[in-house]
Amino acid sequence: MNEIELLREWDADAPPLSDTARARARFRLHQAMQAPGTVSTTGPAPVLGRRPLLRIAVACAAAAAVTATVVVSQNTAENAPRTQAVSATTVLRGAAAEALRTEQPLAPRDDQFVYTKEVIRRTPVAGGPAKTYIDESWSSVDGSKKSYVSELGHTQWVQPAQKGRYSWPPSQWSKLEQLPLDPDRLTITLREAGTKPDFGRPTRADEWPEVQIFLSGLLRAPVLPKGLRSAAFEALAAVPGIEVVPGRTKVDGREAIGIRYRGPAGSPWADGGRLLLFDAKSYRYLGLRERVTARGTSYDQWQHVTAQGVVDRVLQRP
After folding, report:
1. Pick from 114, 62, 115: nearest CA to 91
2. Is there a contact between 61 and 259 (Cβ–Cβ < 8 Å)?
3. What is the SS3 string spanning the chain?
4. End-to-end CA distance of the chain
5. What is the spatial distance between Cα 266 and Cα 290, in angstroms, rounded to a whole number?
């Protein structure tokens, strides 16, 4: 059985759209809404929410362009700074290797919960004090139990998975395990979800925006099956449209490399507003920085996962 057939079996007794196909439909609807002659929203990318259990969660940042570089300062033995050009491909492939090196393989049972602790810091663009939120969430492994989630300090119970409710990335562990670990096959499986994949056909230019959305959205899941995060980083390294942000980026006082996706001119992602941040030495993924607007106020937002694991019950910690 190939990967696309496995995708078709998700929610086999539900309407025919798969999770990925439903997400693609939303993506195309948003593109149509952003076309010339329509009214734009407050931001360049679709605001579909952060919590996959509540709404479809997609991050419109990540991929790779070999020609994009960043200048990173390093200290020589004489303490004199020198520069080194680093490509986005190098960073993402380094992140893939680091993910394989540091990941802790998990095999959660269906009756367990995935625990995550995420820190979000918002600073008003116009000035003023920053505010930090600490969100802890417990998500049902197979979606059959109520989950307890927090978003910007607001907690709520989420009912078990129901027919007609879809999310990306999938909230059920079994669905994540069905995704291929080969980067090329992962890309094509997501590109052609709902149809028989043609693994010999090159990806068209107009298909890459969708591909990077699904891949970068997959990386938003704090816990993934062994090898899948590394495969997603490797797959992103083949997506055109990513560039390394020039200059230095600081994250909690340390040097980081920022990578952003720039979509085609006129698209909602043309300005590359969201950054994936990586440690400048190890290429370990550090988190996401973006500009968001809430209730008429713009914020610079920095968010990162500080703890994750699998537990037996809600409110239990690893």
Report:
1. 62
2. yes
3. CCHHHHHHHCCCCCCCCCHHHHHHHHHHHHHHHCCCCCCCCCCCCCCCCCCCCCCCCCCCCCCCCCCCEEEEEEECCCCCEEEEEEEHHHHHHHHHHHHHHHCCCCCCCCCCEEEEEEEEEEEECCCCCCEEEEEEEEEECCCCCCEEEEECCEEEEECCCCCCCCCCCCCCHHHHHCCCCCHHHHHHHHHCCCCCCCCCCCCCHHHHHHHHHHHHHHHCCCCCCCCHHHHHHHHHCCCCCEEECCCCEEECCEEEEEEEECCCCCCCCCCCCCEEEEECCCCCEEEEEEEEEECCEEEEEEEEEEEEEEECCCCCCC
4. 35
5. 20
Q: Which amino acid is at 144?
A: S
Phi, psi of 148 (to 5 degrees): -120, 115
Which tokens go with 311? Answer: 């537990």
pTM over 0.90: no
Q: Residues for the chain: how many in total?
A: 318
From the CA atom positions of the chain, what is the Rg in Å? 19
pLDDT tens per residue, range 169-193: 888 888 899 999 999 999 999 998 7
d(CA 7, CA 194): 8
Block residue for tokens 């492939």:
93
Give pLDDT, residue 164. 64
pLDDT digits (tens, 9 = 90+) for 37-95: 333 333 333 333 344 433 333 333 333 333 233 333 333 333 333 335 789 999 999 99
- For residue 178, give the amino acid letter: Q
User: What is the residue type of 240?
Assistant: P
The candidate with the shortest Cα–Cα distance to 216, out of 58, 94, 91, is 58
Report the 10 Å Cβ neighbour count for 149: 20
